[in-house]
C-alpha cells in the first residue's frame, strides 16, 4: 500500500481533554459529598443544622454525582478517545460532540441545584425531575447519533469488541431512561410517576438494575477491551469469548431487575424470573473478567511497576467479585440476610470504587500523558494513589459486611420467651456506629488518593504540550466487500445499523416479558377495597417526605418473616400501594420500617421526634428537623396535583380539586388540636402538620397492627 492510496485525517483530542477534566473535577465533588454523607451517619450534626445538607438530600446528590458526573464523563472521554482510533475516522459531527459535553455538564449542574432543594422523584438513580429528564434524553440521543454517524463513515471494515459494548449501552440506556421517566407534570418542578405501587417498583428496578448494567458495566467493559490491551501491549485473549460474553450479557441482564424486590409485594413469578436470570449472569460476567485478566498473559511482570496496569487489574478483579456477589445476593436465602442492610452498600461500592473508579483512574493515567505528548509526572505518586485507594476500598467495604451481619443477627434474634431480643430497632443501629466511622475513614482515604491524582494530572499537563489534533492516515473503506465463507459474526460487524437493531431486540425481550404482564394483567396487583386515595393533607405530607429523602433511611415494605412481622406488624400487600406514585419501598434501613407506623404513636410523639429525635429515641442517628415546625407549606399547587392524579386514574370525585383545600384545612385543624392537647402550639399550615398527617396514615388501610 503506497501513500497515494491513504487518506489523511485527524483525531479531536480537545473534546477528550474536556471530558477527562470534567471526570476529575466532578469525581472530587462526588466523593467529597459521599464522605460528608457517610460522616452524618454517625455524626448527624455534620449537616450543620441546614435543611439542604441533611443526609436524605445529599445522598442522591452523591449517587448522581459519582454515577452520571464522574463515571459518565469518564465513559465519554474513553469513547471519544477510542472510537475514532478504532474506526480510523474523526467523530462524525464536532458540533454534536460539544453539544454533548456542555449539555451533560449543565444537566449535572441542574442536578446539583435541584436535589438539595428537595426537587426529586425519589426514584433510585432517577431522582431528577421531568425537565432534566427530557434534557438527558436529548443529550443522550445526540451522543448516540454521533456514534452511529461515525460508524457509518468509518475506514475500518469491522467493529472492534469495545464498540459493540458502546452501542448496546447507548440503545439500552435510552430505552431504560425514557420508560422509567414517564410521568405527568404538575408544574415545571413537580410530576407524578405514570406507574404506581408494584408496577412502579418493577419498572424502577428494571431501570435501576440495568442502569448499573448498561451505564456502570457495559460501557466500562468496552473501555476495558480497548485500554487494557493498549496498556499491556497485548491482544485481547479470545475473540470468540468476547462474542459469547457480549451477547449473553446484554440478553440476560435485562431479566434480572426483580432480584431487588425479593420477598416484597411483587408477584412471585417475576421474583423467580429475576432470581433465575441473575444466577445465570455469573457465566457471561466471569467470561468477561477472564478475558480481561488473560489478556495480561506474558505481561504480568509489567504489573509490578506500571500503576496503570495495577489499577486495571484490581478493577477487573473487583468486577469479578461484584458479578459473583450480585447473583449470590439474588438467591432468596442470601437476600433475606442482605437486603435492607449495609451488605448492599458494600456490594455497590466494591463495584463503584473498585471497578468503575479504578478503571477510570487507570484509563486517565494512560491517556493523559498521550494527550499532552509527555510521560506521567510521577510514577511514585500514581503508585501511592493506587495503594491509598486500595486501602480505602478495604476500609470501606469490610466494615459494611460486618455491620450487615451484626444487624441481621440482632434483628432476627428471639429470647427464651419467644419475644424479640432487640425489640427496639435503634438498639441494632447503635452497634454499627464504629463500622460507620471506619466506612467514612475508607471514603476519606479514597478521596485522598483522587486528590493526589489531580495534582499528578495537573503537573503532567504542565510538563507536556497539548496536542489538540492528532494526525493519522488510513485507506478508504472498500465498497461492496462481501467475501464468501466469512465468519458470521464478522459479517455482522460490517453492518453497524443491523448490529444495533439486533442488540436492541436482545435487550428488549426480558424487560417486555416481565413488565407488560405486570401492568396489563390485573391479577398481578390484587386490589383491596379498604385502600383509599391519600387525603389532600396526606398527599402534601407525602410529597414533603419525598422532598426530604426520608426513603433513603426508611423502608415501607414489611417482608413476610417472623422477625419483621413481630417488629412492625402485618406484612405488606400489593393492593396497599395502588395509589403510591412513586412507590417508597426503600433499599436500605438506617431507621425502622414505617409501613405500619400510622396510629402507633400520638401526633405529639412525631412532633417531638422531628424536632429532636433523641428526645423520643435516645441514641438516634437521625438529624433533627426543627425548621419543620416553622416552615410554612405552599398549598397553591394542590388543585393541580389533584387534577394530575385524576388523569392518572386516582379516583378522586369529579371537581374535587375545588374541595380539596377545605378538606386539607379540616384535617390540619384536627392535628393542631391534638398537639395543643399535648401542650404544643403550632400553626396548621406548617410542614410538621402535613408530615404528621402522612405518617399517621401509613398502614392504616387494612386492619393490621404491630405486636409491640
Automatic annotation (TrEMBL):
Keyword Manganese tagged: no
Pfam families referenced in this protein's UniProt entry, alphabetically: COX1, FixO
Pathways per UniProt: Energy metabolism; oxidative phosphorylation
Membrane topology, as annotated: Multi-pass membrane protein
UniProt keyword annotations, A-Z: Cell membrane, Copper, Electron transport, Heme, Iron, Membrane, Metal-binding, Respiratory chain, Translocase, Transmembrane, Transmembrane helix, Transport
TM helices/strands, residue ranges: 18-43, 63-83, 95-118, 130-152, 164-186, 206-227, 239-256, 276-296, 308-324, 344-366, 386-410, 436-458, 497-520
PROSITE patterns hit by this protein: COX1, COX1_CUB, CYTC
Subcellular compartments: Cell membrane
Cofactor(s) recorded in Swiss-Prot or TrEMBL: Cu(2+); heme b
Limits of the Cytochrome c domain: 536-699
Domain of life: Bacteria
Domain Cytochrome oxidase subunit I profile stretches: 1-499
EC code(s) of this entry: 7.1.1.9
Catalytic activity: 4 Fe(II)-[cytochrome c] + O2 + 8 H(+)(in) = 4 Fe(III)-[cytochrome c] + 2 H2O + 4 H(+)(out)
Record-stated family: Belongs to the heme-copper respiratory oxidase family.
PANTHER family per UniProt: CYTOCHROME C OXIDASE SUBUNIT 1 (PTHR10422), CYTOCHROME C OXIDASE SUBUNIT 1 HOMOLOG, BACTEROID (PTHR10422:SF29)
NCBIfam families: ccoN (TIGR00780), ccoO (TIGR00781), PRK14485.1 (NF011053), PRK14487.1 (NF011055)
Protein's name in the database: cytochrome-c oxidase
Organism the protein comes from: Algoriphagus marincola
Source species taxonomy: Bacteria, Pseudomonadati, Bacteroidota, Cytophagia, Cytophagales
Gene behind this protein: ccoN
Amino acid at each position: 500500500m503506497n501513500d497515494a492510496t491513504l487518506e489523511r485525517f485527524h483525531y479531536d483530542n480537545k473534546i477528550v481533554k474536556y471530558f477527562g477534566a470534567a471526570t476529575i473535577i466532578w469525581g472530587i465533588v462526588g466523593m467529597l459529598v459521599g464522605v460528608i454523607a457517610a460522616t452524618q451517619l454517625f455524626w448527624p450534626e455534620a449537616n450543620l443544622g441546614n435543611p439542604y445538607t441533611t443526609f436524605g438530600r445529599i445522598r442522591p446528590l452523591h449517587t448522581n454525582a459519582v454515577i452520571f458526573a464522574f463515571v459518565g464523563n469518564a465513559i465519554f472521554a474513553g469513547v471519544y478517545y477510542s472510537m475514532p482510533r478504532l474506526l480510523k475516522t474523526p467523530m462524525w459531527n464536532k458540533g454534536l460532540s460539544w453539544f454533548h459535553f456542555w449539555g451533560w455538564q449543565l444537566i449535572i449542574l441542574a442536578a446539583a441545584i435541584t436535589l438539595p432543594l428537595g426537587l426529586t422523584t425519589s426514584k433510585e438513580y432517577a431522582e431528577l425531575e421531568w425537565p432534566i429528564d427530557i434534557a438527558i434524553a436529548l443529550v443522550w440521543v445526540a451522543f448516540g447519533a454521533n456514534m452511529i454517524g461515525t460508524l457509518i463513515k468509518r475506514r475500518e471494515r469491522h467493529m472492534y469488541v469495545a464498540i459493540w459494548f458502546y452501542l448496546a449501552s447507548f440503545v439500552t440506556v435510552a430505552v431504560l431512561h425514557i420508560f422509567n421517566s414517564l410521568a405527568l407534570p404538575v408544574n415545571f418542578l413537580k410530576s407524578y410517576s405514570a406507574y404506581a405501587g408494584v408496577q412502579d417498583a418493577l419498572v424502577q428496578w428494571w431501570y435501576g438494575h440495568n442502569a448499573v448494567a448498561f451505564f456502570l458495566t457495559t460501557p466500562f467493559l468496552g473501555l476495558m477491551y480497548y485500554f487494557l490491551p493498549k496498556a499491556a501491549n497485548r491482544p485481547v485473549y479470545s475473540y470468540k469469548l468476547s462474542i459469547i460474553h457480549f451477547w449473553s450479557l446484554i440478553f440476560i441482564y435485562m431479566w434480572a431487575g426483580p432480584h431487588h424486590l425479593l420477598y416484597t409485594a411483587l408477584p412471585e413469578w417475576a421474583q423467580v424470573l429475576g432470581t433465575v436470570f441473575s444466577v445465570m449472569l455469573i457465566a457471561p460476567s466471569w467470561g468477561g473478567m477472564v478475558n480481561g485478566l488473560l489478556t495480561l498473559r506474558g505481561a504480568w511482570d509489567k504489573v509490578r511497576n506500571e500503576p496503570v496496569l495495577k489499577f486495571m487489574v484490581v478493577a477487573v478483579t473487583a468486577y469479578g467479585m461484584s458479578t459473583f456477589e450480585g447473583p449470590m445476593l439474588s438467591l432468596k436465602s442470601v437476600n433475606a440476610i442482605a437486603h435492607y442492610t449495609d451488605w448492599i452498600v458494600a456490594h455497590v461500592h466494591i463495584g463503584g470504587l473498585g471497578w468503575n473508579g479504578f478503571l477510570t483512574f487507570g484509563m486517565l493515567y494512560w491517556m493523559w500523558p498521550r494527550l499532552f505528548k509527555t510521560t506521567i509526572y510521577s510514577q511514585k505518586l500514581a503508585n501511592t494513589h493506587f495503594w491509598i485507594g486500595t486501602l480505602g476500598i478495604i476500609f470501606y467495604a469490610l466494615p459494611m459486611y460486618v455491620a450487615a451481619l451484626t444487624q441481621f443477627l440482632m434483628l432476627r434474634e428471639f429470647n427464651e420467651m419467644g419475644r424479640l431480643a432487640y425489640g427496639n430497632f435503634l438498639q441494632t443501629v447503635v452497634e454499627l456506629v464504629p463500622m460507620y466511622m471506619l466506612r467514612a475513614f475508607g471514603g476519606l482515604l479514597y478521596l485522598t488518593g483522587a486528590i493526589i491524582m489531580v495534582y499528578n494530572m495537573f503537573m503532567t499537563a504542565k510538563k507536556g504540550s497539548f496536542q489538540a489534533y492528532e494526525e493519522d492516515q488510513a485507506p478508504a473503506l472498500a465498497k461492496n466487500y462481501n467475501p464468501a465463507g466469512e465468519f458470521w459474526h464478522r459479517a455482522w460487524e460490517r453492518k453497524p445499523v443491523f448490529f444495533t437493531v439486533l442488540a436492541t431486540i436482545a435487550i428488549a425481550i426480558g424487560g417486555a416479558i416481565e413488565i407488560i404482564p405486570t401492568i396489563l394483567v390485573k391479577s398481578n396487583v390484587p386490589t383491596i377495597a379498604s385502600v383509599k386515595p391519600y387525603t389532600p393533607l396526606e398527599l402534601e405530607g407525602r410529597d414533603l417526605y419525598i422532598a426530604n429523602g426520608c426513603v433513603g433511611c426508611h423502608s415501607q415494605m414489611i417482608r413476610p418473616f417472623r422477625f419483621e412481622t413481630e417488629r412492625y406488624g402485618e406484612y405488606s400487600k400489593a393492593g396497599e400501594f395502588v395509589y403510591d406514585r412513586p412507590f417508597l419501598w426503600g433499599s436500605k434501613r438506617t431507621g425502622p420500617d414505617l409501613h405500619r407506623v400510622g396510629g402507633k404513636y400520638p401526633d405529639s410523639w412525631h412532633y417531638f421526634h422531628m424536632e429532636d429525635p433523641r428526645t423520643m429515641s435516645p441514641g438516634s442517628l437521625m438529624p433533627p428537623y426543627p425548621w419543620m415546625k416553622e416552615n410554612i407549606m405552599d398549598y397553591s399547587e394542590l388543585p393541580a396535583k389533584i387534577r394530575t392524579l385524576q388523569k392518572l386514574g386516582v379516583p378522586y370525585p369529579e371537581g374535587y380539586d375545588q374541595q380539596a383545600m377545605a378538606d386539607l384545612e379540616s384535617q390540619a385543624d384536627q392535628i393542631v388540636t391534638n398537639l395543643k392537647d399535648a401542650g404544643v402550639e403550632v400553626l396548621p399550615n406548617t410542614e410538621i402538620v402535613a408530615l404528621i398527617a402522612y405518617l399517621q396514615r401509613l398502614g392504616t388501610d387494612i386492619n393490621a397492627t404491630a405486636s409491640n
